[in-house]
Design a protein that fits this description.
The protein is of the alpha+beta class. Helices cover 28% and strands 27% of the residues. The strands form eight sheets. Strands 4, 7, 21, 22, 23, 26 and 27 form a seven-stranded mixed sheet that branches. Strands 8, 9, 10, 11, 12, 13 and 15 form a seven-stranded antiparallel sheet that branches. Strands 1-2-3-28 form a four-stranded antiparallel sheet. The protein starts with 13 loop residues before the first helix and ends with a strand.
Length: 650
């Protein structure tokens, strides 16, 4: 059968019919299209595979870069990029991204310091392609960059430092107090770049310092806040002078000399003897006459004055005398008499001191003025009788030896309770005003008291009064505490150089005042929650070289325990009992500090880390035992690094 083209009866040529049929037949088009699309499709799939490999490699590179930057910044000291920083950064980079992973080309991470306090790590390499090589792309570039810096919010750091007597002992060849000074400066140097960064942005990093031992030296700080926070009258374990001897005393008034009186010797005598007679000097047959008499007081007394002056005192053979010639003649003399009359006055003398509690006016002493006090009553005379404290003796009596004293700034704590034991919890009793960190004084019970060692005496345990006592003038007083402030390096160095070992270990003393001085309320309120629109982070670094070491005979922040019983309620508590009660107070205040949001770091330097000290730290990583100077410096630097929020900034 023939198929005709267009017209009936016509037959199409054979070649033209085939091509026409081929053009009109679509059954083979799909294969052609697929064949034509294989090339771009292969390129797309290949790029996806190669790009996926490149993405995984770059993600791994970026993680390694981040770790390297953080590691490098963590070991950077004094904002100096040195070999230690570079090597540590590269070590972390290579650990997290071993060379050759994903077949990337060999590379060396580059470590730089682009700005203050920042470590930057960069790396550049290439990753070979697989499928994309067919299209002329042999490799893909990989570049990573990351910065790490110490970025703070406002930061307040309170250093609570044990400066007890044992800090003067050597540890591994260096006195512990010297190691402490070096460690504080290492902390300062670690944080100085951050301090500069914060200040440049209107924020701040500040330090406060509380050196502690048997007490703390905060008197000048309290007085600067308000003198009214210090008591005007304080009961001290002192002594009183008993002016109980009423003594009469006669005040004499001497009159004018009277007219001369003539006396004639009873017989004629030689001129030499007459001269002696005139001078009231003995010679043969004559003994001198009395030159004074009368009395005793208050009766009149008199004195007579003799002279051999020929015109006024003696006449030998005077005209009209019984014997006027020869070797023996009559002799007369003259004397002048002066009378003294008396009035009677009375005074009081002391029979000695009584050692007992005494309320003493310290309104001038607390202001830093020198006050005079009596040191003895051996020659003292008072116009009135009674019992007087040493200041009153100096003010009211006369003739006594005195000395003067100026307050050194160390304090006795305000009122507390004696019911806190090792079994107590963490709730601070309402009447324990000393542990109420933010309580502002309004009564004498709530006010602090200046220590007055020059007039304070320890008596026998249990005695309310004694005839003897031990003067507390050698009581320990550490260096003055400092409130939160921005420090220059020179000022910080000067301050720590002035820290000297003295006194015994009372941990609660240091923690009470460290917490009080970093609080956002109370008499100082130095650490607000927000400054210049940014939050404030609070840190307490507590360092001690010993365990709690109390003594009931010490003159400490709570007075003399064996006489006042403020902590134990006992006249003779055992050392372990007293230590335990003080340690419980330490635990209570640590808990209060955490309630303020403070992060607490505890360092046991050359001693064991007690359970109470461990508990005081904010976590186990913030409590440490340190064995020598180098370790202490390293720990302070590590704390400085951790206090700052070490983070990636790019």
């Amino acid at each position: 059968m023939q198929i005709k083209n267009g017209r009936s009866g016509a037959t199409a040529p054979h070649g033209k019919g085939f091509l026409t049929r081929l053009a009109r037949d679509v059954r083979g088009n799909t294969l052609a299209i697929v064949g034509a699309a294989l090339v771009p499709l292969a390129a797309m799939i290949g790029s996806g595979v190669d790009m996926s490999r490149a993405y995984m490699a770059k993600t791994r590179l970026q993680s390694a870069c981040d770790a390297a930057a953080l590691a490098g910044r963590r070991v950077m000291q004094n904002d100096t990029l040195d070999a230690t920083v570079t090597n540590e950064a590269r070590r972390f980079f290579n650990f997290n991204y071993p060379q050759g992973l994903y077949n990337v080309a060999a590379f060396t991470p580059n470590v730089t310091r682009p700005s203050t306090g920042t470590v930057r790590v960069t790396a550049s390499t290439t990753i070979p392609t697989t499928i994309m090589k067919m299209f002329g792309f042999n490799s893909l570039p990989l570049d990573v960059s990351c910065d790490a810096s110490l970025s703070f919010v406002n930061t307040d750091i309170m250093l609570v430092l044990d400066v007890t007597g044992s800090m003067g002992d050597p540890l591994s060849g260096t006195d512990k107090i010297v190691s402490l000074r070096d460690a504080v400066m290492a902390l300062y140097d670690e944080l100085k770049p951050t301090q500069d960064q914060l200040e440049a942005n209107g924020l701040r990093l500040r330090y406060g310092i509380v050196p502690y031992s048997t007490t703390v030296n905060v008197g000048a700080l309290i007085r600067a806040a308000s003198p009214n926070y210090l008591a005007d009258n304080v009961e001290y374990q002192a002594r009183v002078a008993q002016f109980d001897q009423h003594i009469a005393e006669y005040n004499g008034t001497t009159g004018s000399p009277q007219s001369p009186v003539n006396q004639t010797y009873g017989s004629a005598i030689s001129q030499s003897d007459c001269d002696k007679y005139g001078r009231n000097v003995s010679f043969s047959g004559f003994s001198p006459s009395a030159t004074s008499g009368g009395g005793p007081a208050p009766a009149l007394t008199w004195t007579r004055t003799f002279s051999n002056n020929e015109s006024t005192g003696v006449d030998w053979g005077w005209s009209g005398a019984p014997d006027t010639s020869g070797t023996n003649r009559s002799c007369r003399r003259r004397y002048v008499q002066t009378d003294t009359t008396y009035t009677t006055v009375y005074h009081w003398e002391s029979s000695g001191w009584s050692y007992e509690p005494e309320n003493i006016d310290v309104s001038s002493y607390k202001l830093g003025n020198a006050v005079t006090y009596a040191t003895s009553t051996s020659n003292a005379e008072s116009p009135i009788g009674g019992n007087f404290d040493p200041l009153e003796v100096a003010q009211n009596a006369a003739g006594e030896p005195t000395s003067s004293a100026t307050w050194n700034g160390c304090i006795e704590e305000r009122d507390t309770v004696d019911t806190i034991t090792t079994a107590s919890g963490y709730t601070i009793p309402a009447l324990a005003y000393d542990l109420d960190i933010n309580l502002i004084p309004s009564t004498d019970a709530q006010r602090w008291r200046p220590m007055f060692p020059a007039i304070t005496y320890r008596r026998s345990a249990g005695s309310s009064q004694s005839g003897s006592g031990t003067l507390m003038s050698g009581s320990a007083c550490p260096a003055q505490a400092r409130r939160l402030q921005a420090w220059t390096r020179a000022d910080m160095q000067s301050y720590v150089n002035g820290l000297n070992p003295v006194g015994s270990t009372y941990h609660d003393t240091g923690m009470i005042w460290g917490t009080r001085m970093i609080s956002n309320a109370g008499i100082f309120a130095d650490s607000p929650n927000v400054f210049n629109g940014m939050p404030v982070a609070r840190h307490i670094i507590f360092m001690s070289d010993g365990q709690m070491d109390t003594d009931s005979g010490n003159y400490a922040m709570y007075g003399i325990e064996q006489n006042q019983r403020r902590i134990s309620g006992q006249y003779s508590p055992s050392e372990s009992e007293l230590n335990g009660r003080h340690m419980q107070r330490f635990k209570m205040v640590c808990n209060a500090a955490k309630g303020l949001g403070a992060s607490i770091w505890v360092i046991a330097f050359g001693t064991t880390l007690s359970s109470e000290m461990q508990e005081c730290a904010s976590n186990t990583n913030q409590a440490s035992t340190i064995g020598n100077r180098d370790q202490l410096i390293a720990r302070f630097r590590q704390i400085g690094s951790n206090i700052g929020a070490l983070r990636l900034t790019q």
